[in-house]
Amino acid sequence: MLRFLSPKSIRPPFARYSHAVEVPAGKRLIVCSGQLGVRPDDSIPEDAGAQAELCFSNIAAVLAEAGLALKDIVRINAFVTDRAHMKPYMAVRDRLVADPPPASTLMIVSGFSRPEFKVEIEVIAAG
User: Fold this and answer.
1) Which of 49, 50, 115, 120 is deepest in the core (most CB within 10 A)?
2) Which of 54-58, 67-71, 88-92, 98-102 has the lowest mean pLDDT?
3) 41-71 b/e with 16+ CB inside 10 Å = b?
C-alpha cells in the first residue's frame, strides 16, 4: 500500500499534491518521459489547458502499456513556459489525478524544443 506523506511539522502543500509518497518494496515503478501536448497527427493546440489534457492522455496511454493508469501516479514533474499557464495546467491535473494526490513539482521554464509547446509533464507510477 502506498503511503502519502504530509508531515504536520511543515507547511501544508500549496496546492493539491502530497509532499511525498512512499512506495513499498515489491511495487513496479514506471518512469515516464516528459510528454508534450501534441496529437498523433503532429498538431498542437494553442491553449495550455488543451495541451495539458493531451499530455495526460499520452501519459495514460504509456501507463496502460504497463497495465497501469493515471490513478497509479506517485510523482509528477510539470513544466510550463509562463505563469499564466499554471492555472489551466493545475485544473487539468487536479481533475485527472487520484486522491490522495501524488507528490508534484511545477516549474516555469523558458521554453521547449518547439516554441508552440507550453506544457510538458513527466510522471513516475507504481503498481
Assistant:
1) 120
2) 98-102
3) eeeebeebbbbbbbbbebbeeebeeeebebe
Find out whether 10 and 109 touch, Cβ atoms under 8 Å: no
pTM above 0.90, yes or no: yes
Instruction: Report the alpha-carbon distance of residue 4 to residue 94 in Å, rounded.
Output: 16
Across residues 47-54, what is the average pLDDT?
98
Q: If DSSP codes are grouped into helix, strand and coil, which group holds residue 67? A: coil
What size, in residues, is the chain?
127
Amino acid at 100: P
Q: What are phi and psi of 88, to 5 degrees?
A: -65, -40
Task: Report the alpha-carbon distance of residue 36 to residue 6 in Å, rounded.
Answer: 29
Angle 65-69-72 from CA coordinates, rounded to 5°: 120
- Neighbouring CB atoms inside 10 A of 11's CB total 8
Q: Give the residue-averaged pLDDT of 53-75.
A: 98
| Distance from C-alpha of 22 to C-alpha of 92, rounded to nearest angstrom | 24
